[in-house]
Write a structure and sequence with these properties.
The complex is a heterodimer. By secondary structure, chain A is of the alpha+beta class. Helix content of chain A is about 55%, strand content about 20%. Chain A has one domain: Arc Repressor Mutant, subunit A (Orthogonal Bundle), CATH 1.10.10. Classes of the chains: A alpha+beta, B alpha+beta.
Amino acid sequence: MTKRRTDLLQGTLDLIILKALESQPMHGYAVARTIERVTDDVLRVEEGSLYPALHRMEERGWIAAEWGRSENRRRAKFYSLTETGRSQLSEEADEWARYARAVGRMLAL
Amino acid sequence: MIVRRIRGWFNRAQLRRDIDEEIRFHLEMRRAEYEVCGMSSREARRAATNRFGDVELIRRKVQRVRHVPTIHMTGAIDGMWQDLRFAFRGFIRQPAFAMFAILTLALGIGANTAIYSLVETVILNPLPFAEGDRLAWAWRQRGDNMMMTPTTEQRIAWRNAEQIEGMINFASSDVALRIDDGVESVNAAHVPPDLFGFLGISPVIGRALVTGDSAVGAPRVAMLAEGLWRSRYGADPQAVGRMISLDGQAHEVVGVVPSSLDALFRSGKRDVWMPLSMADTVRGLLTLVRIEEGTTFVSVQAELDAMPTSLEDAEQADWKPKIVPPHLMTSSQMRSGLWILLGSVGLILLIACANVANMLLARGVGRQHELAVRVALGAGRVRLARQLFVEALALSVVGATVGIGMAYAGVHVLRNAVPESLIELSYARLSAGVLAVAALLGVGSGLLFGLAPVLQGTSGRAAENLRQGVRGGDSARKSYFRQALVCLEVALAFVLFIGAGLLIRSFANLSSVDPGFDAERLVNVRIDLPGTRYESEAARMSFARNVLQRVRQLPQVAEATMAMAAPPRMAAFLGALEVEGLEDAFDSKAGVVSVNWVLPEYFETLGIDIIEGRGFQDDGEIHEVVLINDRFAHEAWPGVSAVGKRFRWKGEEDWMTVLGVVEDVKAFGLADDADRAQVYQPYGAERSFGGGSILVRAVGRPEDLVSLVRGQINTVDPLLPILQATTISHMYADSIARPRFNTILLGCFAALALLLAITGVYGVIAMTMNQRLREIGVRMALGASASDVKLLTLRWGIRPVLIGTFLGAGVSLALGRLLESQLFEVSAADPATYLTVLNVER
């Protein structure tokens, strides 16, 4: 049986990435894996699009990047949340919750 | 500002690498994951890539986010490579076009490379030694005349000059090299042992000469020249250590001198090199100086000028020291001739470029559809221009490579074909500098002719063409452009043709100059009678009589005589003359008096008429009597007979009496008019020296006689070296070798230019006709007759040719001045030449 996959809504990718990075710094691949695992593979992220988003947020100063060693001792770029990123995350999370509530109410009619 | 820019560039490059590495890392992690699940590594890689999306697109997106320009080096090179392959595929599809274009370019670039190598050898770098730009010749000069050998006093002064770092003197002579049971006259260089260090030259094998070699009582040693070592000793390393006999004395060969050192001698290549002190008879001492770093030849000259001259010898003090940069050793005519040739091949390359540009344009018309499609499919202007440039460059680089091959062959042929009088040309080679120039020409011409199709292909109308459907049409503007190119070609070819025509006429004038005597069927064998074996005048005389008697008995011989020298290699005397009864010294204008010592029958054998008085007599007086030429007689004693008059060399006691007056002779070559006064003294009179020329008039072909005369001489004295054995007409031909060389080359270049221009004109007319076929059809349908169409065609074809011709004539008239130095009794605006060329063009 194949699961139905939902295309990511515009603008939610940033939120998901920021959330994934909240607990600890990780490299891009780990971010992708985290999203797959936590959303149970329901949200289909075209992995490639992860990277423009990561770099865009780095440019904006939401996340900071640093080269380090991955679990298998390879050079990898690790991203971590900055203070700006943290407040951005809570702002976007609130926004999303409001949105979801609104849609939920509508559907509950 | 610049620093920040560079740092920015480095940062961007770093960022670009980081992005690539990050993506690579991701793909590899994913692949590893799939592999763990049991996929093969190929499947895993594909699956990873699929999941990632379009890698190239995402990389670009990230780069855009980070403001990194998306075009990067590897991409550009890949693209170029792709363009290059595309270009070559196109060439293979149209081999005739590619071959023709490449051949055209190869001819243009090859001719330029070859001529540039001559210019480099003769003018730009005539002494190819370490720091050769600080080397110069030093000699003494009075007016137009120069004297190579400095006095000892001057030599010391020059050596002590502050701006002169070092100086060497060397000389050359003919020596007799004993080979098997005969002897051969070879050219010897007599050099100080420090010459090799001075010029930074090491021997090919063996050792160089050392200071001890020139010490008194040291064992006699010599070095072989590379040329002789290769030709006679088969480049045998064992030649070092061998004993050879030079002028009857045994010398040990200690090493081999590289042929690059030949450039020191303009009188020809050397065969053996000996320490200077050993030379007992040297022709003249040459002086080469190295000036101090940071000084100029001009300032060194100023220092020498300021030096006090000894007042003891007024005659010597007249001769001023002169510093001469190496390229000025070559005659100014030779130099300007080479520049003219270089200019001509430059024009040829321009014609070739115009031709190839035309071919590319013609090809471009056929390709307009292809180009339009590419534009429509999103190929940018820049992209398209790059492709067209790459195509042009591919053509020119291949053309340049073939051209370098042609130049190599050409220079090789030239090296072996140049006559002795143009010896410096034989040192030409394709040096690194020459190859660099060839490469530059290749790229430069590629960019030049590549411009035309780029302008055409990327003009805004490409898309329009697609819409119009492919008519393969050609807009009027482009057609004009192509006609302008043809115009240019015709004009340039015309200029070259005028140049060649003028040179040919000038050369014809030169060849028909009367040497003043009958130079046909005359053999000249030069010998040296060494003072060691022919001490007395009587001994030399009896040898001469003996040889002449034997030679005259040969059935192939009409007449024979002997003289010190033979025209056109007469001895020149630089002293002034005093004419009895005249207050001032006789000014022989050019300052050169040619002198010869002759046997009485000399005038009859050579066919020089005695105009007045009488000739010498066999048993007559040989001292203080002379014959002089007509011109001298008229200038010194205008209006009266010169017979019986007296003159003497300035500074000498004895007067010489004129016995008779003879016809003028071209004593130094057909073009040379340097000598006004010619003086003949009896063979054996004062100032004459051992040896001379045996002159023999042949009954039949003179060439057959040369070896017979040699044989007779060696019967009388088997150990006598023959310095030279040739015919007088050959020597006269050699005296105009330079103009002949220039004429032949420029003639060839003009022919080449014409050929290129004709193909250019033909190509454009054919093209135009092809495109206007429909127009012609319409015209004929509307009632135009066949002859109308012919006229129309003629007009299309003839218009650019006519305009080109007029342009060319104008340019030629303007440039004519440049050629004047090369012309002999022809005006640079010679109407006959212009008319002839006009006819050819038609």
